[in-house]
Amino acid sequence: MEGMQRVVEHLRNRPEELARLKAEGKKVVAHFIGDYLPTELIYAAGGVPLGLVHGGDPEAVDASAHAVWRYMCPFSRAMYGYHVLKEQKYFELFDLLAVPITCQHLRRTAELYEFYTDKTVFKLGIPQAYDGKRGLEYFKGGLNLFKEFLEGHTGNKITDATLGEAVDTYRRLRDGLKKISELRKSPRPPISSKDFIRLNHAAHLLDPKLMVDLLDSLYHDISQKEGPKRKGPRILLTGPNIAMGDYKVLNLIEQSEAAVVIEDIAEGVLFYWENVAANGDPMDAIADRYITKRPNCAFNRPSMVRHFDFIEKLARDFSVDGVVWYQLRLCETWDMESHFLPERLKKMDRPIPMLKLESEYDIEDIVPMKTRVEAFVESLR
Amino acid sequence: MRNSYKEFMEICDYTEKEIQKEMPRVKRFFEKTGLNEEDAKRGKDRLINYYQCGELRGMRMHIGALMKWTVDIVLAKEEGKKTMWNELPQGMNSAYLGAVHFVDSNIVVGSPGLNFFNILGGVFGKLDHMWTWAEENFFTQGVAHCACNFTVAGGRALGAIPPGDLTIMQGIYCDEAPKTGELIEHVFGERVFYINRCQDEYLFEPPGGERQVAYLAGAYELLQQEMSKVAGAEITDEMVKQNLMNYYLVEQAKIKEIEDLRVMSDPQVLRVQAWNLLWIFHVFSPGKPGFEERMEALQVLYDELKGMVDRGEGITEKGAPKIIYAPMLPFVDPEYGKVLEDAGINVCCNEVYSTQVVNVEQSMAFMALPAPMLFASMWLSVPLLYVHTRGDSIVQNYKQLEIDGILLLAHYACRIIGSDMIMVKEFVRKELGPDVPLAVLDYDIYDNRYYNHEQARTRLESFAEMVKSAKQSRAKFAA
Known about the structure:
By secondary structure, chain A is α/β, with parallel strands linked by helices. Chain A is built from 16 helices and 8 strands.
C-alpha cells in the first residue's frame, strides 16, 4: 500500500526532524502511551508531542536491571531501558517527560527518570474509579497544572484558539483512524491488524497534522478495495499493550491464517475510539474524553463489567470468532481480569472462545506461543 | 493423652474459665481454617521459640488477644454478627472502621487477612491451602502476584473468612489489592469499598500535597457514609475522631513506648519477630473494639521488658552490633529474625522508627481537622510511601542510633515497597558512603514459598558476619 509506504518514510525521518525542531527551540514533550495524557495540550502549547511507543526488545528490559526490580512489567522496564541503552533516539531526544500515573509500573518508571536522569518529569494523577465528579475534578486540577507546566517550559500561552485548533486536529486524527478501523467490519478487511497498529504507533510519533493527511490519503486508497480472501477465523486482540516492535503475536496469528480484525489494547492502540467533544469548554471536553468516555483499563477499580461490555460490543460489531488475550508478564491487574472474560464470552448468544498468551519480550516465548496460537486457530475453524 | 488445644490456649493466656467457655469456639475456628490438633501443638512450640511466650506474659496476652479476635472474625457470620473488614495492606483504615462501635458494639470489625498472616501463618505456619486455591483460580503463577491477596481471596473461598457487610480494599499503596477487591465483589458478592489515591507526588518533594490530601479525604467521607448505612445509624465525624484520639493514638503511644524501650535496650530485650507481630497488630488496631484488653497486654509487656532492662537481661549479648531493617520481617517465617539474633546481631529497629519528639502545638492544630482530612493527612505522611522518605528515615536512624548495618529487604512481587529497593539503596549509599555494611535481599513478607529458606539463612549469616567484622574493625581503628 502506497499510503503505508509514506507513513514508513516519514517515520524513518522523524528522529532527524525532531532534532531539527529542538534546535529551532521547540520543546519535545514525551509521554507514556496509555491514552490518559491529553496531547492536545502539548500541541496547543507549541510543543512537539512524542508518544514513547517502543517495546518488545529484551535488551531494553535488561538494561533497566540496575535500577528496578525484575517483577515490573517488561514494557515499563523497557521505557527506562531504552534511555539507558542510548540506541533509540526518541528516548534521548525529548526535553520533558509527561507521565499519566495509571499503574504502579509506569509510576515507578517515572520515578526512575526522576531519580537517575536530569529529565524534567510531569506526573498527571489519574483517578482509578469511575466515581463521578470527584475523580473528574481531580483530573481537571491535574490538567490545569499540566497546562501551567507546559506554558512555563515552552514560553507559549495556551489560548482558547490554540487549544481549539489542537482539539480539532486530534479529532480529525482520531476520526481518520476510526474510519480505517471500521473498514475491518467487512468480511475482507482491506488493511491488516499489523498495519493498522503501525498506524496507531505512527500517530504517537509523527506530527498530528501530517498524520491526518496520511490517514486521509490512506483511507482514500483502501476504502473502496477489498482485502485478500481468508479462510481463517476473525480475531479480537485484547491486552494491556502492543508496543512498536512487539509484533510476534500478530505475526503468529497471521501465519496461522487467522485475521485480527479489531484490537482492544490499552496502550498504543485504541486511543482513537472516543473523541473530544467539539463544543463547550475545551478543558472540560478534554477531561470528559480522557476520563469518562474512554474505554477503561484493568487498573481501574472496579473495571471488569465495563471493560467486558466494551469487548462484547466490539466482538459483535466486528463479527469476531475468537478472542486472543495478550498480556505482558507481571501485569497483575490484567492477569486477574483474564480469568473472568472467558466466562463472560461463553454467555454471549454466539459463545466465543478465548486464548490467553503472555510475554516478557523474551525470544523464547515464540515457540510455545506459536503452538498455542495454531491450536487455537485450528479449534475455531 | 495431652490436650493440645488446651495447652495452646494456655500459652495464649486463656484463663481456666475462658478455656472451658471458649473451647468449642476455638475448635470450630480450627475446623473452619483447616487446622488440626497437630497444628495446635506446633503453634504452641513456635510461640515459645520465636515469640518469647514462654517468658513474657505480656506476649502471651498479646497472642491471646489476637487469637480471640481472629476467632471472633472467623465465627462472626455463624454467630449472626454484622461484619466490617479492612483488608491488607493498609492499617489505619481499621481505626476508621472501629468508630462503628460507638453505635453498635456487636459489629465485628477486623482485618481478616492480617490476622491470618499473624496467627495461621506466623503461629501455626499453615496458609498454603489458601494460597494454593488462589493460585489455582485467579492468581497465575509467574506473574508475581502478592500472597497478601492469596490469603484474602483463598480464605474466603475456603470458608474461613466470612463475607464482610462492608469490606475496605485500599488503593493507597498498590493496584493488586483493589483488584482483589473486585475479585471479592465479583466472586463472593461482597460489598467492597475502594479507597484510592492518585500517586502523582514527586520524588524529593515533601509528601502530602494539598490536592492529594483533599482527594483522599473525599474517599474517607464516602466511607463514613457507607459505614453509617451498614451500621444502621449515623457515624459522625466526632465518633471517628474520638476513636482515633482516645483509643487508636493512645494505643500507638503505648506501643511506641515499648518500641523505644526495645530500640534503646542493650542487650536487646525483645525478639524482633515478636516485635514484628506486635507492631503490625497495633498498626491495624480498630481503636475502641478490644481496646482495654490490648492496653492491658501492652502495660504488662512494658513492665516485663522494663524489668529486664533494669536487670541487664536480654536475648543478645551486651554490645552486640545493631542493625536497622526495611521494611519488615516475614510474618509467616518467624525463624527469619532468629537467624540474625542467633548470629549475635541486635535487630534494633525497622525503617519507620522515629526518634522525633511529637510537637504538641502542631499536633493539636492537626487534630482540629475534620476526620477525613485528618486520616488522609496522616496516611500521606507515612514514610514508607516514598523512596526519598524511606531513604531519609533509614539515614536518620542510622546516624542517631549508632547503627552498625543496614538490611534492605525487597519484598518479592511488591511493586511498591519492593521494586523501589534499589533506589532506596542508592539513596542511602549516597548519604552514608560506600563503607556502610548494607545488604539488599530478596524475600517475601507473606509467602515463604517464594524464597529458599536455607539460601536466606546463608545470606543473613554472611550479612551478620559482615556487620560484626565491620564493627570490630571500627573499634580497632578507634583504639
